[in-house]
Amino acid sequence: MDLGIIKNLKMHYRKRILKEMISAIEKNETVQENIDLRKAIVELYKVWKFDATAKTIRNCFKRGGFSNQTDDSNSDDEDAILADLKAK
Asked: Start and end of every DDE-1 domain (predicted)?
């Protein structure tokens, strides 16, 4: 169950870091190749606070067998995020 949550967290983290790098390249600034621990923690906090949704966590619990309720209106968040990344 938590593998899905961790996968989602990593995906959003990488997306934020890549956006920051692309932004620096577009502004002709130096791209920071190494990320220090403090910056990584700050970015992970932002991901957990703003990008990790309750819907994603609920879906991971459902896939883990912890909920017997089904809701067909919920789509797979990870597939939507991947599709969004591929489109950009």
From this structure: 1-61
